[in-house]
Design goal:
By secondary structure, this protein is an alpha/beta fold. It has 6 helices and 6 strands. About 30% of the residues lie in helices and about 20% in strands. This is Rab-like protein 3. Keywords: GTP-binding, Nucleotide-binding.
């Protein structure tokens, strides 16, 4: 097998939001039959064609690091998790569309991974606002993915998606909402697949071409 260049993408979010199911779908293009809690960190690999269909096309390995645990974990657990955050090239922030708290906690997950604050406090205030300056100089590409779209009644869907749309704006990231038990949400040529490919291209560019991120 060819020795492809690779990038490291963290998959972060609260326990139970569907990170393992998402990673399995992204890497195997299959639904994960019996998802279980991730202990520590699980790594899977997706093969991605950078700038597919252009003269610059090149194949890369995308390492997806599914980090387990809770954002409210004890300091000792957070310190253990910190080892997974070394030399990261991109972050996928995952939240459960049916769980508002999991959406709010993405701010703390991102701050923890970016080492802005070892024990983030005061990030959120009562109305859900936060200090945008904490992310102003971030050079790591981010992607926000909302899961369990199928569990939202059609009559409530617009309301929920309007509520979560601010996340992508806050993180200067694109947004994908899907059901991890249905591969059609990431079908080739779909808007979600295009967004995903664009994100991976950006991660690769930051790592191998622009060289202005925190990695080497």
């Amino acid at each position: 097998m060819a020795a492809f260049d690779r990038v490291k993408v963290l998959v972060l979010g609260d326990s139970g939001v569907g990170k393992s199911s998402l990673v399995h779908l992204l890497c195997q293009n299959q639904v994960l039959g019996n998802p279980s809690w991730t202990v520590g960190c699980s790594v899977d690999v997706r093969i991605h064609d950078y700038k597919e269909g252009t003269p610059e096309e090149k194949t890369y390995y995308i390492e997806l690091w599914d980090v387990g645990g809770s954002v409210g974990s004890a300091t000792s657990v957070k310190s253990t998790r910190a080892v997974f955050y070394n030399l990261l090239n991109g972050i996928i922030l995952v939240h459960d569309l049916t769980n508002k708290k999991s959406s709010q906690n993405l701010y703390r997950w991102s701050l923890e991974a970016l080492n802005r604050d070892v024990t983030p406090t005061g990030v959120l205030v009562t109305n859900g606002d936060y200090d945008r300056e904490q992310f102003a100089d971030n050079q790591i590409p981010l992607l926000v993915i909302g899961t369990k779209l199928d569990q939202i009644p059609e009559t409530k869907r617009n309301e929920v998606l309007n509520r979560t749309a601010f996340l992508a704006e806050d993180f200067n990231a694109e947004e994908i909402n899907l059901d991890c038990t249905n591969p059609r949400y990431l079908a080739a040529g779909s808007s979600n697949a295009v967004k995903l490919s664009r994100f991976f291209d950006k991660v690769i560019e930051k790592r191998y071409f622009l060289r202005d991120g925190n990695q080497v």
